[in-house]
Amino acid sequence: MALSIRDVQPHDLDSVLALNNAAGSTILPLDVAGLRGLYEEASYFRVAEVDGHIAGFLIALREDARYASPNFLWFRAHYPEFVYIDRIVVARPYRGLGLGRVFYADVTSYAETHVPQLACEVFLEPRDDVSLLFHGTWGFLEVGQQTMPSNGRRVALLAKTLCSYPFVRDTYLHGPTGRLPDLPWLGERVRPNVAVRGARAAGGA
Question: Which residues does the UniProt record annotate as the domain N-acetyltransferase (predicted)?
Answer without folding.
Answer: 3-163
